[in-house]
Amino acid sequence: MRYSLLFSLLLSISLSSFAQDRIPMNGAELMNLYRSTQGRVVIENKILGDHVDTFFEEIDTLRKFTAFINCQINQLSIDSIRTVDSLLFVGCEIGYLDTRGSYFGGYLEITNNILDHINLFDSEFNTSVHINNRELNMARFDGNTFRNIPTQVVLNSEKNNDLFKKPTPFRNQLFLGSSTPIGEVMLSNNTFESEDFFQTVQVSAEIGRLVIRGNSFQSTLDLDQTTISNQFMLFGNSINRISFGYMTFSETYNLIEWDDLQSFRILQTTRRDLDLFTLKDEDQSLLKAQLNYLDPRAFYEAQSKTELDYQPLYDDLIRNYYALYLSSKQFGNIRYANGINYEMKEIEGRWLRNQYLNNRTFSNYFKWKLNRLMGFYTAHGTDPAKSVMISLLIILVFGVFYFFFPSDWDKESKATMILRFKELIAQDGVYVKPFFVLFWAILLSLVNGLTLSLNSFITLGFGQIPTHGLAKYACIVEGFLGWFLLTLFTVTLINQIQF
User: Fold this and answer.
1) Average pLDDT for residues 262-276, to the nearest whole number?
2) Average pLDDT, the chain
3) How far, in Å, CA of 146 to CA of 27, rounded?
4) Residue 425 pLDDT
5) Nearest to 309 by CA among 345, 350, 344
6) In sequence order, which ranges of 246-333 are alpha helices (DSSP H)?
């Protein structure tokens, strides 16, 4: 539900106006109506043809609230529109709407129309753009700048406050929807400025081909309820936060550049009831007057304890990650799929830790620590090479440890080596030959220690353990550790080979 002055205006217009016959209006009549009207200008039930183009060309700056209601417009193809107040096209039949190099100081609403395409290029928008039509074949937005939309209303929740980083009403910089499927939507090279995450760029429609590339999103990109029937491409963007919500990905082709999304930029949004908030009377008035107001929402990122205790939103967030994972895997992008899986498992690790803190059982503790081990040893089943390097390091550490203990594989003990070294020095009076003899003996002993460590780690078996003292028990521990870690390595390797 959106509260706005525009909504009140539309309610004041007779609902029967959309069924009334349209009558022609020429350019002079349109200009006279605009100039003679004090306050809001409403043009309804008119056949305007190409006169709207002429109207905007003659007016240097649109300084009044202007609404075209249930009009027939052949086309609107002009450059350098300048508006100070709001501009609306509602319930019209428009061939197409093209504009370039324009400045919109007020609200721009294009809703409930039938039109072929919309092109907004190289323009600046100081407040919201709302596009939601009965029929729309194509929409393209290129090289535009959407300015930060400040709000004077800050909501302080008395319930579930931890779900909010900075509780405030959402403001839509751009909303794109349609009652019927849109053939193609392209957002490219746009800049969406924002001082907080609660400003959104929202696309919510059934779309054949959706391309989002080369944009800078300082606000939140919200694709909730979007359905892609043909192609979805998301690449080359700078994205602060993104919510997929209940988006349906294409079964034909998805190109989603994980580099745009990694580092936990994916979140889940949920609407909040106004009853959860305490508002002063003046804040309530400000809230209803804000043209781009949407229901308050919470950002869910599975960070705080309150968030992690809220199971439904956690499940939704994981479902989004899993949908991205399946999409990348389906189209053979192993690097992106591995990155998505790793981040999803890291979020699962937070949740498992919270489960253990809520219920301190051995089962919960083991699940949490197994998740952490998988992350450390195999990068959650995505990096077999990391497993090999850690395994080699473990073998090396144990091998050096075994070197300092007696071994049945050594021809002589360490004490005997040193004694023979001293005897050779006393006999020959030189240090070179005794040094190499000692070095060779120590090297063989170290190789024996490393061999013992390797044998223990890969659990080949050697009958009686060929060492003594504490090292014998260390062999048993290393054998168990090796068996467990090699099992994880095998699973990781198979997981990658299956791609």
Assistant:
1) 77
2) 84
3) 31
4) 66
5) 350
6) 281-289, 305-309, 311-330
Residue 285 near residue 142 (C-beta atoms within 8 A): no
The neighbour count for residue 44, using CB atoms within 10 Å, is 18
Distance (Å, whole) CA 445 – CA 426: 24
Q: How confident is the model at residue 299 (pLDDT cuts 50, 70, 90)?
A: confident
Q: CA-CA distance, 393 to 397, in Å (whole number)?
A: 6
478: tokens are: 């290393």
For residue 390, which amino acid is it?
A: I
Name the residue among 61, 73, 86, 62 with its Cα closest to residue 10: 86
- Which tokens in the block code for residue 386? 């990391």
Cα separation of 6 and 465, whole Å? 84
Compute the distance between CA of residue 391 and CA of residue 80 in angstroms, rounded to an integer: 65
Residue 152 has pLDDT above 70, yes or no: no
pLDDT at 11: 43
Helix (H, G, I), strand (E, B) or coil at 176: strand
Q: Which two tokens stand for residue 125?
A: 């928008």
CA distance 97 to 137: 12
pLDDT of residue 295 exceeding 70, the answer is no
Euclidean distance between CA atoms 252 and 154, whole angstroms: 43
Q: How far is CA 2 from CA 131, 288, 384, in A?
A: 14, 9, 51
Q: Which two tokens stand for residue 263?
A: 């580092």
Q: Which amino acid is at 58?
A: E
For 376-389, write each residue's pLDDT tens digit: 999 999 999 999 99
C-alpha 12/C-alpha 14 separation (Å) is: 6
Q: What local confidence, expressed as pLDDT, does residue 159 receive?
A: 47
216-245 average pLDDT score: 94
Answer yes or no: are the C-beta atoms of 263 and 286 closer than 8 Å: no
CB neighbours (10 Å) of residue 263? 8
- Pair 88, 109: CB distance under 8 Å: yes
User: Strand pairing partners for 149?
Assistant: none
Using DSSP's 3-state secondary structure scheme, residue 101 falls into coil
Kindly report the number of other CB atoms within 10 A of residue 388's CB atom: 13
